[in-house]
Specification:
Layout lengths: L8 H9 L14 H4 L9 H4 L7 H9 L7 H20 L5 H12 L4 H21 L8 E3 L3 E2 L8 E2 L3 E3 L2 E6 L4 H19 L5 E6 L7 E6 L2 H20 L16 H5 L6
Parallel strand pairs: 5-6
Antiparallel strand pairs: 1-4, 2-3, 4-5, 6-7
Helix pairs in contact: 5-7, 6-7, 8-9
């Protein structure tokens, strides 16, 4: 398989062992009568896969108009972009050790403290992966953040997986939010099915912990996971469409950009 230099062999072996190639699926992305939007409002993938257990963050943002506070969104977007940069460099033929050193310094310029250190760590992990992918001299069969229409599967605008390796969506997570990323991978797989009419039976979530390295997880895109995604999509759409406050979650991540409104009881329930 020509893409095996992109994803560890152990992931492909697990996919074969689980029979991913012969997965029987009813809820394919091209089956609009089954997976299309059921409500007028169509959420984004990030809203459906947000870390808030009750999805009150979506209610606060979309219904009440509460603005996010803190740097969590900015920092998350920065680290995400940093991680994908070495892959972009590889695809453009600019991946050399000298170029990587120059680019890393440029990305760290103006940063200090833990953020500067974390940007360097994330970049180095991604650079090692990209260099390994190019080791055999073949061009990477990869698209970085390709734009896929979300409307056929009930999502707004364009949906963008981190990578498409052939027809396999790959999503990176910097931290521990692996479960919600599985739903995101399902959304990207179904969007690709709707756009290209090719079956997508599995995806990959690559976890990059603060301790370094990468942990690869195979995600079978079976009907159970697809149904969970569609149910979560409809739940979020209903919250916005009906304007009903789902209430604060029992526990709220300190980094949540809308968490201040719940902790300070800034919005009446």
């Amino acid at each position: 398989m020509p893409t095996e230099n992109m994803i560890p062999a152990s992931v492909w072996e697990r996919a074969r062992a689980l029979g991913a190639g012969e997965l029987a699926v009813e809820l394919r992305g091209w089956r609009g009568e089954l997976v299309g939007p059921r409500r007028r409002f169509t959420p984004t993938v990030s809203e459906v896969c947000s870390p808030c257990p009750t999805k009150r963050d979506v209610y606060l943002s979309r219904v009440v108009g509460v603005r996010p506070e803190g740097d969590a969104l900015r920092v998350g977007a920065l680290l995400h972009s940093v991680f994908l940069e070495p892959v972009r460099m590889a695809l453009s033929g600019r991946l050399t050790l000298e170029a990587l050193a120059v680019r890393k310094a440029a990305l760290q310029r103006g940063l200090s403290g833990w953020l500067r250190k974390r940007v360097g760590e994330v970049f180095e992990v991604a650079a090692a992966l990209a260099l390994a992918w190019l080791h055999d001299g073949r061009r990477l069969p990869v698209a970085v953040e390709p734009e896929l229409p979300g409307s056929p599967i009930g999502f707004s605008g364009l949906v963008k997986p981190d990578l498409l390796v052939a027809s396999v969506p790959v999503e990176f997570v910097l931290g521990n939010s692996v479960g919600r990323k599985e739903l995101a991978v399902a959304a990207y797989g179904m969007a690709l099915e709707a756009a290209a009419h090719v079956p997508v039976n599995f995806g990959v979530v690559a976890q990059v912990p603060a301790s370094g390295g990468v942990a690869w997880r195979l995600v079978l895109l079976d009907d159970e996971l697809r149904r969970r995604l569609l149910d979560a999509r409809d739940e979020v759409a209903g919250i916005v469409e009906e304007g009903e406050d789902p209430g604060p979650a029992p526990s709220c991540p300190e980094s949540c950009p809308w968490g201040w409104a719940c902790r300070e009881n800034a919005v009446r329930v």
